[in-house]
Amino acid sequence: MISKFIKTHKQSIVYGLAMAVMLFVLKWLELKFIIIGHSFEIYAGLIAVIFTGLGIWLALKLAQPKEKTVIVEKPIYVSNENFVVNYEALQQTNMSRRELEVLELMAEGLSNLEIAGRLFVSLNTVKTHSARLFEKLDVKRRTQAVDKAKRMGILK
Amino acid sequence: MISKFIKTHKQSIVYGLAMAVMLFVLKWLELKFIIIGHSFEIYAGLIAVIFTGLGIWLALKLAQPKEKTVIVEKPIYVSNENFVVNYEALQQTNMSRRELEVLELMAEGLSNLEIAGRLFVSLNTVKTHSARLFEKLDVKRRTQAVDKAKRMGILK
DNA sequence: TTCAAAATCACCCTAAAGTATGAAGCCTGT
DNA sequence: ACAGGCTTCATACTTTAGGGTGATTTTGAA
Predict the structure, then answer these.
(1) Which residues lie closer than 8 Å to B155 by C-beta, 6 or more apart?
(2) Whole-number Cα distances in Å, A31 to A27, A39, B40, B45, B156
(3) Helix (H), strand (E) at residue A31
(4) Per-residue pLDDT reduced to its tens digit, B19-70
(5) Distance C26 C1' – A42 CA (angstroms)
(6) Does A74 contact B at CB distance below 8 Å?
(7) How far is the CA of B78 from the C1' of D16 (A)?
(8) Could you give the 3-state DSSP secondary structure of residue A121?
């Protein structure tokens, strides 16, 4: 309970304590000032220095640091001997039903015309699907598409 | 010349000016203090607040922005590494070295021209190899060849 | 050494694949 | 209702793949 409170309000507590210390120092300096005499300059100077420090400390502690993002690409080697479809990867490709069907038939070595026959659509349609599919897989040829899809675990 | 100097020493100049202003305020406050009377508290408090602000401002201005490294995971899809070539099947195909090489590059999705580049031979040579290879695998297209070879265990 | 694969390349021609662009109908979610 | 993605198809064009044929050079094994 208490420790949790301390944890969540750590910064506020530390800040409060710091202020208390500062006020104490202030009082102490005031005392000194009265005892020693009329050294306004020294008094003010000390306060200035101390509170400048406090300000710096506060800013460093409490202010959100400007973040400079450095992007480091970390390769992850995904091997897929288990013929379980990697649905995650499949989702990320944004492939549509039809495009996947075309891709699957491509992987079986069918020509576009044969695929058109299987799917009961025209050759042009198959071409459109394949073109889209190549874009989504970021490849140039059907052989590349099949290779990549298999590596990704989209195809068995 | 001068503008360059200002640019390169901008922060120092600003800092100096800020200090000057602070000292001026200090002096002004001192004057006020003398005129108004013995309000040590107000004087000290004002200085404390002002210099705390100065400290915060300084820290924010001069502090180096923290670098935050964001690791972006970039998946590299790798297929089965523990793959054993089915040499028996490979023998039965009667494939030559070169034909196998061409087949392997085909499986990677390379075009005939790209394969020619890799093997330091002409496009025509690759074509003849591929034609022979298709015969031996009893297929009509490169995609079929790759598919069949993989099923046979010739390719990974 | 000899001889048959293997490897290399060339031409020509057709088939298939791929690119670019446009367009219409159909769902889906806002 | 409207935007946007999906599916479908078309036309036109370029590039790549594949088939057929023939030829030369290497090479490996009998």
Answers:
(1) B103, B104, B107, B146, B149
(2) 6, 12, 11, 15, 86
(3) helix A10-36
(4) 666 666 666 666 655 555 555 666 677 777 777 777 767 766 666 555 556 6
(5) 84
(6) yes
(7) 27
(8) coil
